[in-house]
Amino acid sequence: MTTSAPPANIPVISITAGCLPEAWEKAVLAVWDNGLEVKTQYDKPDDPPSKDATVIITITDPFGEPRIHKNFPGGPEELESYRLEVVSGIHDHWIDPAAGKWTYTYHERLFAYRPVEDISRAEPLKPFRKVDQIKYIIDCLSQAGHSRRAQAVTWMPSTDPGTEHPPCLQRVWCRLVANQAEQLYLNMNTHWRSRDLYKAWFMNVYAVTDLQRIIAEEISKKRGEPVKVGRYVDINDSLHIYGSYFDEVAGEVEKMRKSPFSKRAWQSTHPAFAVCTQQAKEKLAQDPDWYAKARD
Q1: How far is residue 116's CA from residue 98's CA, in Å, rounded to a whole number?
Q2: Which of 1, 55, 165, 268 could bridge to 67 as Cys pair (CB 3.0-4.6 Å)?
């Protein structure tokens, strides 16, 4: 008599945290301890399999303090540059796949979405007009805060599947809700097909929650009443830690197990963070491509 093997399933993990640094540490520990071991398309021959899971992360107060984790890979200068890339489009001009540059930025896909058939062509056919999807969300919720249609997408099925690095962020969804005192809160969900938990997650969420803040402020102006930032939910089909940097992650995991996250977090008003943020703005003023070049 043979016994059938159990089904192979990707773990599904749910996390709730009060602020960004707490959420990042909880997610790292959960995926490190419970993630499925699986190879990736980017592994070198000697790399161990990654740790991978489907993860839903709820941050109840995205602007709660402390908001900055001191140990995320990168630093305050990179964090500020990435924030400006997402919310202000400072690197949209770097999109030029025919010249070997980027195929997209999240700002371009969200604020100027325009499907094309072949993005790698020097002169791609552009039969559609650009769509500012963030403006649509703002206008939609300004008129009907309870609408379920206030969303923005990034994926272009006509061209993204054939590119080497297609967008990880797939969709942004927003809705207004009121508490018992009739105060309005903007709730936001984002959906990601794939995500580097250790090296990308914190910067991604820092930037998209700032976009949440901006959307709330713009809706507030249009409605003529206060709109506060509500909870943020981060949905990941594949949230992973690459095997190629397990040694680096192991050291951070040990720290996370030994003491509370607050030992490794800063208030967003911390003087050191403020200085580094200002330095990033000065660097970008002198060379707008500084951070883009560093990442390329």
Answers
A1: 14
A2: 268
